[in-house]
Write a structure and sequence with these properties.
The chain has 197 residues and is of the alpha+beta class. The protein has one domain: Nucleic acid-binding proteins (OB fold (Dihydrolipoamide Acetyltransferase, E2P)). It contains four helices and ten strands; from the N terminus they run E-E-E-H-H-E-E-H-E-E-E-E-E-H. Strands 1, 2, 3, 4, 5, 6, 7, 8, 9 and 10 form a ten-stranded mixed beta sheet that branches.
Length: 197
């Protein structure tokens, strides 16, 4: 089976829980670069590619060997429904509503690109940490693969490359826009006021 059958490039997705500049320890303590992709349910083309890649993993002899010779019952998938009220993310993260979401990670820092093109016609590399953040929009190149760990068997998602395509409202808290914070023509009063100290 060709490796590319398990690789896809998404359409426009929103990024959340972005850790692409410095790795962060996952639940098992391993340092990983990672992000969550929020895929609009209306993006049928991306969802079709994801499902085809998942089916390719299931059919891969290497996956079947890892799973003991057959696709296991209760196979865990990395694709989740943001409108599933039984998930912990439903109440905590309303931005997942109307989307499917996938967590993806990698041991190596992913290539981060801008939709701007340089003089050579190639996408410019992003070096400013403020350019890719939770809430912005991007196209993401990922690969799906089988895993078996601690009795759990499933298909997870590896992060390869990110192409930022648009800004968006920041997720996960923000200090706000500094220009807006001070743009109210505030004037100090001249009269003395009683000290509150």
């Amino acid at each position: 089976m060709e490796a590319r059958a398990t690789e896809i490039t998404t359409g426009k997705v929103r990024l959340s829980f972005v850790h692409v500049w410095e790795p962060k320890a996952n639940k098992s303590g391993k340092l990983k670069y990672s992000l969550m992709m929020l895929i609009p349910k209306s993006d049928k083309a991306t969802l079709k590619r994801i499902k085809e890649a998942i089916e390719a993993v299931k059919a891969d002899p290497k996956s079947l060997k890892k799973w003991g010779g057959k696709v296991p019952a209760g196979l865990k998938l990395t694709l989740h429904d943001g409108d599933d009220e039984d998930t912990e993310n439903f109440e905590k993260y309303p931005e997942v509503h109307g989307h499917y979401y996938i967590n993806c990670s990698t041991d190596r820092k992913p290539k981060l690109l801008s939709s701007r093109r340089g003089p050579d016609g190639k996408f410019e590399e992003i070096t400013d940490p403020f350019e890719i953040y939770s809430g912005c929009y991007a196209r993401v190149h990922v690969n799906f693969f089988a895993y078996e760990a601690d009795g759990s068997k499933g298909i997870t998602c590896g992060l390869n490359n990110v192409l930022k395509v648009a800004d968006g409202e920041s997720l996960g808290g923000s200090a706000g826009n500094a220009q807006d914070a001070f743009d109210d023509d505030f004037k100090y009063e001249d009269e003395e006021e009683e000290s509150i100290f």
